[in-house]
Amino acid sequence: MPLTDQPVKGMYILESGRVFHLIDRKLKTQGRQGGLVIMKKKALDNGQVLTETVKAGTKVEYINPETKEMQFLYMDNENCYFMDNQTYETLPISKDVIGEYANFLKEGSTHLIMMYEEKVLTVKENPSMELEVTQAEDTVKGNTSNSATKEVTVETGYRLQVPMFIKRGDVLKINTSTGEYSGKAN
Hints:
Elements: E1 3-4, E2 12-15, E3 18-29, E4 35-43, E5 49-55, E6 60-63, E7 66-75, E8 79-84, E9 90-94, H1 95-98, E10 110-116, E11 119-124, E12 128-136, E13 149-154, E14 159-163, E15 171-175, E16 180-184
Antiparallel strand pairs: 1-6, 2-3, 2-6, 3-4, 4-5, 7-8, 7-10, 8-9, 10-11, 12-13, 12-15, 13-14, 15-16
């Protein structure tokens, strides 16, 4: 494993046999004492987010995970199932590893799976997904006293608030980090 004294946002760190994704890194200087590095990292085994402060120049062990392109097949109560595009093997990935991103997995879509030593670390999230509206109530004239939104259901079963002009069959662009409507797809 390579060592570095310059942790960079987005890198994967190996610490005590656990793999962490570095979410954020800040450098704080303290006069004569030298600098400190404040690292915000997410444990990929249980999703726990930790903040750790180390002296600048402290060596950290990092890994370069293998990236595989896989096709999403289906999900059940515990797992999401992906197919390796090269070997056609089916790989179950726990919903705990995927988290809220499971709401946006569309059957047949391809995703990048990050692996290390044949173990799944995480699914690399697309910043936005395009999903078709399957259920939408008709707009009622004059129903704009509060915010002019309504709830719709998209093809994955996810429900969200959208503007009143959205109708069944429209394809929406949804921000996967917030789960909110961000526009109509072209």
